[in-house]
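User: For a benchmark we're assembling, each entry needs the component sequences followed by a predicted structure for the full assembly. Here are entry 17's components. Please fill in the structure.
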Amino acid sequence: MLAGVCGGISLAAGIDVTLVRIGFVLLSLGSGVGVLVYALAWLLLPLQGETTTIFSRAVTDRRGIRLVIAIIPALVVVQIVAAALHIGYLGSFSWPVFLAAGGAILIRRNASEAERVWINDDLIPMLHTGADRHTRRTLIVRVALGIVLGVGGLLVLMLGHPSSAALRPVGGALLVIAAIVVVFGPWWLSLVRDLMSERQARAMAEERSQMAAHVHDSVLQTLALIQRSADDPQHVVRLARAQERELRSWLFEGRPPGTVGEEAKTLAEGIGLIQRLIEADHGIAVHVVVVGDCELTDGLRALLDASREAIVNAAKWSGAGQVSVYAEVERDAVMLYVRDRGQGFDPEAVPEDRQGIAQSIRARMTRFGGSVVIRSSVGEGAEVELSMPRRELVT
Amino acid sequence: MSELGRPRIFLVDDHAMFRSGVRAELGDAVDVIGEAEDVASAIELVNERVPDVVLLDVHLPGGGGQAVLHGVMPHHPEVQFLALSVSDAPEDVIAVIRAGARGYVTKTISGEELLRAVYRVGAGDAVFSPRLAGFVLDAFAGGAGGPEPPAGLDPDLDQLSPREREVLRLIARGYTYKEVARDLTISPKTVESHVSAVLRKLQLSTRHELAKWANDRRLV
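Assistant: Structure for entry 17:
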């Protein structure tokens, strides 16, 4: 029922499994030998279809054994403290705890896959006694244990062993501290866990939005370009290849596409790089004027990515033959303007499927405390104003 | 100007291809009265024919465009120079402006825009490309945003007024003079006077950055 030991024995010996189980239960009730035999059998008998046992695997598990050996210094410390404080029971108690912990580590590392799942899912949570399951019962147990420890501590404080009168307060205090930890520990743990999972969720949401921005930048742009040059097979192949390369380097090397921060070190270099890339890809002239220069920060990389998006947008939709880019490094912020003299548009009426501006530019900028202003009207061209503070906001 | 209102133009460039290209682009709107391909012949012919506007290549063998300016300005201050360059390097541009050119444009400029620039320079106004506006803002950093200007500078010559700075910023952003005027709700004439004032400062200021740029100028 637990680890399938009874079933295994009945299979091997040809006895009904129920009889074997009754035998074990009787043995266990009698003297507890049954439990020990059962546990040993679990460790020493191979699982059906396997040739090795948990025990044989544990003996050869060098890393596991090293892990167990690593606990020895802790054991030594406990022994020394126990000897110094004359707390004999602590010294003798630490041995079985150490052996049990070492054994548990080895068993967990070398259990079969299914057994490990069972251990992880059903046994480990018992140690946590978190807020999830059995809350009521574990709370009672914990409080009871806390009371016992606390009362014990107080008793030691008051009575103690006559020979260690001076050290009595220490032992008592330790027990009281242990009581507090037992009662409140799980609550602290669950607080920390909640905090961590919350942070994880936030990181994931951010990751998703960044991913959406990247996919929009690179893949959707390329697809649009491919559709436009459907009558030029060579160009299509070139675009597809470039996109493939970019996507691969992003997926397998972790280098995000559309970022210019990798190759460029300063703002002016980055803008120059964007200029060359866009002029090559889109056949539009990009006139760049940069006043001042500074090292790239994460915020300024985001600014560059956003500006690239804005220029590509102008190249694709404005119909103009050239785009003017002006960047100025001020004391507290970097301003960047992307201007075209194309057909212009009504910023209030950008269709949903052209999410470039909304998603990519705005999300990139606001993530680092920057801002975006878009000025355009039909027939008047368009200008995108990007502003990024130079000192990154501390979040 | 000739009596027909067509400015008389002189081309100085060592590339024959470029000269003929400019001729073709400007067409009948101007009167091209001569060409030169090096510094010596340019000085001689310009002093002799006294055109309204000289289109001057910055990278000219035998001393660069500024050598032509030094050879003509003392004799014929009425001749206006519009500098053209492929390089866009600040030291080239600043050097030729400080030597006396009234404006600067890149060679990638369209024929229509070049014509407008020629007319403007011919009328004694300054022509600032976005690029040049950017250089000037860079060189005159200080006041709004940048570091404090060094002490001992003449504020009339060595600092831009906030209004001039605004005008230059808009030009750098790609605005035409007309758009600048509309954006700042001033008249185009006022924009012109701001730009001319900036040009004067550019030529006369002793700011370290400008002097350095002019000195660093590579001679081609």
